[in-house]
Design brief:
With 340 residues, the protein is of the alpha/beta class. The protein contains 11 helices and 14 strands. The relative contact order is 0.11. This is EAL domain-containing protein.
Amino acid sequence: MNFCTSCTPAPPFPDKGFLLLHNLERNFKPSKFTEYADGSLSIPYSNVKELASLLQDLHEQTNTSLLKGALSKDPEQPLAYSPFSYIYERVIYKDLVSIINKGDFLSFFQPIVNLESGKIFGYESLLRSFDPPVSPFKLFDTAIKTGMQSILDRRARELAIIARSNKIQRGVKSFINFIPSSIYNPEHCLQHTFKMVKQYGVSPDDLIFEVVETEKISDMEHLKSILETYRANGMKVALDDMGSGYSTYEVLENLKPDFVKIDREYITDCHKNYGKQTFLKNVQALANDLSITVLAEGIETEDEYTFLQSIGIPLGQGYLIGKPEETPAAQEKLFAGVVQ
């Protein structure tokens, strides 16, 4: 696909209109419908509750894996056909869809420090919904299910860049998450991000774009092209959750990110677990060989921090150091409650 059809907000579905379907199984026959020469069906609905009930019946009674659909006031002029699952999720979770389209968001900051010195290296930018408050996981999970991940992912990048320009001094790094499936064509889909970097006077060298859900990536060549596009525009890249289900050596050697985050599963109680210690040491050794900087996330105790420091892990973040906040925590506010 050479264009970002999902980068614009989903159009609102009509409260009263028609559900148009392609590839519907013939064993499902609604009470009212019009069938066209190409085999597609038009099913009228008089309100959203009736539409939700119809979609639920289809979801439960038919195989919808190949089913395409559209919602329109005029059955002769559908806006666009999309997978049935997108329509189903957008109607069933219409309130969340509305938040993704036009909700109020903020970009929070979680500090990242040099483990040796304890000094601030940067902040991870994290999207937060505040009116109404919705968990980030629920938002992104709904965005993916409804095919709206490009919209939410782009908004998160925009807000991170704007917030950084106002609140973080030059030289301090920003880790900004992105979902690879939201970027169909890197050269096209990322132009808006690059323009915003210039517009807000942010130094590209201070930006580190972090792949999330790396273990679910099936097209490594596509991911590589995304990372190369970021780098070609002066930015750095990172992979998250190292160790959570994909080949450490193969992925690192193939993609050669500037940074790699170790999954918090390997950080919790690492000071007393020999298997985790072995894994951490191996990742650090491999990263050194490939000139990759390792970042340990999810540090919650002093013992974990001390062990990671002792084996040479350079960077870390976690609640021990500081929680995500709307205003970036200053150096003197880090390690709250920890005796230095």
